[in-house]
Amino acid sequence: MAVIKTYSPNLMVHPYMRQSTHAKATETIDEISKNVVAMLDRLHVVVIGPGLGRDRLMQETCARLIREVRSRDMPFVLDADGLYLAQTQPELVQGYRLCILTPNVVEFGRLLKSKGIDPNTTSVDQTQMCAQLARAFGGVTIIQKGVKDIISNGEHTLVSDGEGGLKRSGGQGDTLTGSLATFLAWRKAYMDRIWDHDNDLTDSELIALAAFGGSALTRECSRLAFAKRGRSLQASDLIDEVPVAFRNLFEDGPKL
C-alpha cells in the first residue's frame, strides 16, 4: 500500500482489503470486512472490481460489502473481476436496481450463460439481448461495452455510439467506472434537490442517464486522447481529457 500511496497524491489508500496470502494468521474475515464496511458512512457510491482479482478472501470480503451496501440503499458499480461475483453469486445483485454492471463482450457472454440465456440467438439483436439480461437480473443496469455501448435496465434501453479512440488500452474501463460513480453521486444530489429543478425524472431514468453519461464521457475522452497520442495511447491519458470531454458533451460554449 505504501507503494500505491507514493504513486500519486490524489490517491487515498486504506490498506484494509486482504488476499489470502497476505492476511495475518490472527485476522478473520469478520475483522477485515468490519474495517471496510466502516468506511461506507463517508461514501455516496461504491465501485467494486478494478484490480480486485479472484482471491477467495478478497471476493468474499466484497460479497459482504455488497450485502451491506444493499442494506443502505447505496448505488454500486461492478466491473472487471467484480463481475465474477455476479456470475458466481447472482443473489448479490439480483433485483437491486441501484447496481450497474459493465461487462465487455466476453464478460457479457458469461453473464448470459449464468442466466441460461443463449448468447448465439440470432433472432435477437444486441439491444434486445442486453435488455433481456437486465430483466433476468431483476432490473439491474447493464452497460455492454463494445463498438457501441448498449445500456439497459430492462425498462429503458439506450445506445451510446459517440466516436471513441481507435485504440483500446487495458485500464480504460477505470475511467468508465469512475465516471459512473460521479454521475451516480450527482443522482443523489438531484434527488436531494440541492438545486431547483422540476423533479420529473424517475429513479429508473436517473440510473439509465447516469450510465449513458459515464459511457459518453469515456468515449469522448478516448477520442480526444487518441487524437493526441495515437498508438502510444495509455489508459491514464484518458483522465487528462475529462474536463474538455465533459465540456464538449454537457456544457454550453464552444467545443474544444
TrEMBL record:
(6S)-NADPHX binds at residues 51, 104-110, 174. It is found in: Cytoplasm. One of its GO terms (cellular component) is cytoplasm. Its main location: cytoplasm. Keywords: ATP-binding, Cytoplasm, Lyase, NAD, NADP, Nucleotide-binding, Phosphoprotein. The keyword Ubl conjugation does not apply. InterPro entries: Carbohydrate_kinase_pred_CS (IPR017953), CARKD (IPR000631), Ribokinase-like (IPR029056). Catalyzes the dehydration of the S-form of NAD(P)HX at the expense of ATP, which is converted to ADP. Together with NAD(P)HX epimerase, which catalyzes the epimerization of the S- and R-forms, the enzyme allows the repair of both epimers of NAD(P)HX, a damaged form of NAD(P)H that is a result of enzymatic or heat-dependent hydration. It holds the Pfam family Carb_kinase. This is ATP-dependent (S)-NAD(P)H-hydrate dehydratase. HAMAP family: NADHX_dehydratase. Residues 1-249 form the YjeF C-terminal domain. It catalyses: (6S)-NADPHX + ATP = ADP + phosphate + NADPH + H(+); (6S)-NADHX + ATP = ADP + phosphate + NADH + H(+). It is an enzyme of class 4 (lyase). GO terms for biological process: metabolite repair; nicotinamide nucleotide metabolic process. Its cofactor is Mg(2+). It comes from Glutinoglossum americanum. Belongs to the NnrD/CARKD family.
